[in-house]
Amino acid sequence: NNEVPDEFAAPGIDALKDKFDYLKMNDVERGRFDAHNDYARSEWGMITHAREEGIEEGMQMGKQEGLEEGMKLGKEEGLEEGAHRKALDIARALKQEGWPLARIAEVAGVPLSELEGLWERT
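^ that's the sequence the OP posted. Answer follows.
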Protein backbone atom coordinates (compact mmCIF):
# COMPACT_ATOMS: atom_id res chain seq x y z
CA ASN A 1 0.00 0.00 0.00
CA ASN A 2 1.75 3.14 -1.27
CA GLU A 3 -0.91 5.54 -0.09
CA VAL A 4 -0.54 7.88 2.86
CA PRO A 5 -3.89 8.98 4.25
CA ASP A 6 -4.53 12.73 3.95
CA GLU A 7 -5.25 13.04 7.67
CA PHE A 8 -1.64 12.15 8.51
CA ALA A 9 0.18 15.36 9.40
CA ALA A 10 3.51 14.27 10.88
CA PRO A 11 6.63 16.27 9.97
CA GLY A 12 8.02 15.07 6.64
CA ILE A 13 4.78 13.38 5.59
CA ASP A 14 4.48 15.57 2.48
CA ALA A 15 7.94 14.49 1.32
CA LEU A 16 6.91 10.86 1.80
CA LYS A 17 3.76 11.44 -0.28
CA ASP A 18 5.89 13.03 -3.03
CA LYS A 19 8.24 10.05 -2.99
CA PHE A 20 5.34 7.62 -3.32
CA ASP A 21 3.96 9.67 -6.23
CA TYR A 22 7.37 9.49 -7.89
CA LEU A 23 7.60 5.74 -7.39
CA LYS A 24 4.17 5.29 -9.00
CA MET A 25 5.42 6.84 -12.26
CA ASN A 26 6.48 4.65 -15.15
CA ASP A 27 9.97 4.99 -16.65
CA VAL A 28 8.94 7.55 -19.28
CA GLU A 29 7.14 9.73 -16.72
CA ARG A 30 10.09 9.52 -14.33
CA GLY A 31 12.47 10.47 -17.15
CA ARG A 32 10.40 13.54 -18.00
CA PHE A 33 10.02 14.44 -14.34
CA ASP A 34 13.77 14.09 -13.71
CA ALA A 35 14.60 16.09 -16.84
CA HIS A 36 12.24 18.85 -15.72
CA ASN A 37 13.79 18.91 -12.23
CA ASP A 38 17.31 18.98 -13.69
CA TYR A 39 16.32 21.90 -15.92
CA ALA A 40 14.70 23.76 -13.01
CA ARG A 41 17.77 23.20 -10.79
CA SER A 42 20.04 24.41 -13.60
CA GLU A 43 17.92 27.52 -14.14
CA TRP A 44 17.82 28.23 -10.42
CA GLY A 45 21.58 27.77 -10.23
CA MET A 46 22.12 30.24 -13.07
CA ILE A 47 19.78 32.76 -11.46
CA THR A 48 21.51 32.39 -8.11
CA HIS A 49 24.94 32.74 -9.72
CA ALA A 50 23.88 35.81 -11.71
CA ARG A 51 22.41 37.38 -8.58
CA GLU A 52 25.62 36.77 -6.63
CA GLU A 53 27.69 38.22 -9.47
CA GLY A 54 25.40 41.25 -9.60
CA ILE A 55 25.73 41.82 -5.88
CA GLU A 56 29.52 41.52 -6.07
CA GLU A 57 29.70 43.87 -9.06
CA GLY A 58 27.46 46.37 -7.29
CA MET A 59 29.62 46.26 -4.19
CA GLN A 60 32.78 46.82 -6.24
CA MET A 61 31.19 49.74 -8.07
CA GLY A 62 30.01 51.21 -4.78
CA LYS A 63 33.47 50.90 -3.26
CA GLN A 64 35.06 52.54 -6.29
CA GLU A 65 32.54 55.38 -6.33
CA GLY A 66 32.95 55.85 -2.59
CA LEU A 67 36.72 55.95 -2.91
CA GLU A 68 36.56 58.46 -5.75
CA GLU A 69 34.08 60.64 -3.86
CA GLY A 70 36.19 60.44 -0.70
CA MET A 71 39.32 61.44 -2.56
CA LYS A 72 37.51 64.33 -4.23
CA LEU A 73 36.14 65.57 -0.92
CA GLY A 74 39.51 65.16 0.77
CA LYS A 75 41.21 67.14 -1.97
CA GLU A 76 38.60 69.90 -1.75
CA GLU A 77 38.92 70.06 2.03
CA GLY A 78 42.70 70.15 1.75
CA LEU A 79 42.56 73.00 -0.75
CA GLU A 80 40.12 74.91 1.44
CA GLU A 81 42.28 74.42 4.52
CA GLY A 82 45.40 75.47 2.60
CA ALA A 83 43.65 78.61 1.35
CA HIS A 84 42.48 79.41 4.88
CA ARG A 85 45.99 79.00 6.27
CA LYS A 86 47.32 81.29 3.55
CA ALA A 87 44.67 83.88 4.44
CA LEU A 88 45.74 83.68 8.10
CA ASP A 89 49.38 84.13 7.07
CA ILE A 90 48.40 87.25 5.13
CA ALA A 91 46.38 88.49 8.12
CA ARG A 92 49.39 88.02 10.43
CA ALA A 93 51.64 89.92 8.04
CA LEU A 94 49.15 92.77 7.78
CA LYS A 95 48.81 92.91 11.58
CA GLN A 96 52.59 93.22 11.86
CA GLU A 97 52.35 96.15 9.44
CA GLY A 98 49.90 97.76 11.86
CA TRP A 99 46.73 97.47 9.79
CA PRO A 100 43.39 97.77 11.61
CA LEU A 101 41.65 94.42 12.27
CA ALA A 102 38.53 95.31 10.28
CA ARG A 103 40.62 96.10 7.20
CA ILE A 104 42.73 92.93 7.66
CA ALA A 105 39.55 90.84 7.83
CA GLU A 106 38.29 92.45 4.63
CA VAL A 107 41.53 92.05 2.68
CA ALA A 108 42.45 88.56 3.93
CA GLY A 109 38.88 87.25 3.70
CA VAL A 110 38.90 86.02 7.29
CA PRO A 111 35.97 86.78 9.61
CA LEU A 112 36.75 89.55 12.07
CA SER A 113 35.58 87.38 14.97
CA GLU A 114 38.11 84.70 14.01
CA LEU A 115 40.92 87.24 13.87
CA GLU A 116 39.94 88.68 17.24
CA GLY A 117 39.88 85.19 18.74
CA LEU A 118 43.22 84.37 17.13
CA TRP A 119 44.99 87.42 18.52
CA GLU A 120 43.38 87.22 21.94
CA ARG A 121 45.16 83.87 22.40
CA THR A 122 48.56 85.27 21.42
